[in-house]
Specification:
This protein is an all-alpha fold. The chain is 69% helix and 0% strand.
Length: 191
């Protein structure tokens, strides 16, 4: 630990914590999406039936007639948060969303830390997911599709702004000025 020099990083206790942390880093970020995939695949017929029934009951404005909604079958009720907001063809989108978060916060962090390449990779991941979400429109409710697209655009533009800041820091003010921007214009862009 860099912050606390009193901790002996060579001790048995510290090694045990490192092993535990490494196992949890593999188990949780990868295990949860894999568990979700397993649940969705094992129950995909019941999920599709449930979603198709709810799509039939939707009123033109995207709302549902609450009196006619059916409860989810017991075996899928406990994990319906993974699929209930999506159209039948995109019932798996919640898992894709988990992997998107994992790519941005987990794997992109490990790729060339602190470099422009790392930020470029994160930008490309964000842009790709944004375009995919816009083209698929996976949510049943058009308002949800709009809001998620807006959030994804915000994330992508924020990453792009950080790329501009990195270029400004590495290239210097003179080259950034020649490229057509300065630190003040980046700050305005990010606000």
């Amino acid at each position: 630990l860099r912050a606390n020099l009193r901790v002996d990083c060579d001790s048995e206790q510290h090694l045990a914590y490192e092993v535990f942390a490494g196992a949890m880093l593999c188990l949780w970020p990868l295990g949860m999406p894999l568990l979700g995939i397993s649940l969705l695949l094992r129950n995909n017929k019941a999920i599709k039936r449930y979603l198709a029934l709810h799509e039939e009951l939707e009123i033109d404005d995207g709302t549902q007639n609450i009196l006619t909604l059916k409860e989810a079958p017991k075996h899928i009720k406990m994990f319906k948060g993974l699929f209930e907001n999506f159209r039948t063809d995109y019932y798996w989108w919640g898992i894709l969303d988990m992997f998107y978060g994992l790519l941005l916060t987990g794997f992109a962090v490990l790729f060339a830390p602190g470099s422009m390449m790392q930020i470029t990779l994160a930008f490309l991941i964000g842009l790709g997911y944004y375009v995919l979400q816009l083209s698929c429109k996976p949510y049943r409710n058009s308002y949800h599709n709009f809001m998620v697209a807006l959030v994804n655009l915000n994330v992508t533009l924020t990453i792009f702004g950080s790329l501009l800041l990195k270029v400004d820091n590495e290239m210097g003010a003179a080259l950034a000025y020649e490229a057509g921007y300065n630190i003040e214009s980046i700050a305005i862009f990010l606000i």
